[in-house]
Amino acid sequence: MDVSNFSHLYDKAIDFAVDFGPKVIGAIVVLVIGLWIVKKVTKSISKLMEKRKVDPSLRPFLTSLIGTIFKALLVISVMGMVGIEMTSFIAILGAAGLAIGMALSGTLQNFAGGVMILIFKPFKAGDFIEAQGYMGVVAEIQIFNTIITTVDNKTIIIPNGGLSTSSMTNFSTQETRRVDFVFGIAYGDDLDKAKSIIMTIAENDKRVLKDPEPFVRMGEMADSSVNITTRLWVNAADYWDVHFDTMEEVYKQFNAQGINIPFPQMDVHIQK
């Protein structure tokens, strides 16, 4: 090789090192420090989620997602420091992200709903809920779907997107529930006697709470009956047993003590 050509290449290498050397060294330093900071931040976020009792199945995923986003931003910044033009790359990345987001809009909505459910915990596994037209016990909360088991042992899979944005009733959050009844008796029957029968049944049932005390009052003079409104407070676990047992016992006692339970009827008067 010609000495002059070698000298020319050498000069160019020196110029390149002088021009880009500080940038490369600075970029490496920023990359190393940035990775260290990202590691510390993700650890802090993980500890914070653990302290806030975020679902254990969600913590590793969120920590990994946040760490990946921070690392991607760090790499883009480092490449920009070196002098690589990132505008076009970011534009292409943004367009690709938009296209993917539109194609997976339903899936992303369910994912976001699952994250919100696992973070804010409107219900948990084992709770008895009513949502999206279904009622049952929550068997499992997944990242995209929630699985519930109905009272007749059917498995229902509900997407988390709609579940997180619509109304939902959780029957398991409170320790006590109120059991409501409306008992109808015939016009002309002894109202006080009927009320006394219902109150005696409630007081003799140990599952019925004394505070709040049972409520038994005439609620309505309906078309075919005098309706007695009854409200009993019970522990949530006893709700259905008290409901069915009370209905059955009231029916038996009404029949035994001469209280008539009327059926719908209509009097027709014919005029000539």
How does this model look, in words?
This protein is of the alpha+beta class. It has three domains: 3-103, Helix Hairpins (Orthogonal Bundle); 123-170, SH3 type barrels (Roll); 176-256, Alpha-Beta Plaits, CATH 3.30.70.100. It is 53% helix and 19% strand. It contains seven helices and eight strands, in the order H-H-H-H-E-E-E-E-H-E-E-H-E-E-H. It has helices at residues 3-51, 59-82, 87-103, 105-120, 160-165, 191-204, 239-256; strands at 128-131, 134-141, 145-150, 155-159, 168-170, 176-185, 215-221, 226-235. Strands 4-3-2-1-5 form a five-stranded antiparallel β-sheet. It has a three-stranded antiparallel β-sheet with strand order 6-8-7, with helices on one face. Strand 3 and strand 4 form a beta hairpin. Helix 1 packs antiparallel against helix 2 and helix 6 (191-204) crosses helix 7 (239-256). The longest helix has 49 residues, at 3-51. The chain is elongated. The chain starts with a helix and ends in a 16-residue tail after the last helix.
* Cα separation of the termini: 133 Å
Q: Summarize model confidence as the mean pLDDT.
A: 83
Radius of gyration: 35 Å
For the sheet with most strands, the description reads: 5 strands, antiparallel
Second rung of CATH, namely the architecture of the largest domain: Orthogonal Bundle
Q: Flag low-confidence runs.
A: none
Give the ordered list of helices and strands.
HHHHEEEEHEEHEEH
- Number of DSSP-assigned strands: 8
Going by helix content, strand content and strand pairing, the class is alpha+beta
Helix proportion:
40-55%
Query: What is the overall silhouette?
Result: elongated
Count of helical regions: 7
Strand proportion, as a percent range, falls in: 15-25%
CATH class of the largest domain: Mainly Alpha
Strand order of the largest sheet: 4-3-2-1-5
CATH topology tier name of the largest domain: Helix Hairpins
How many domain modules?
3
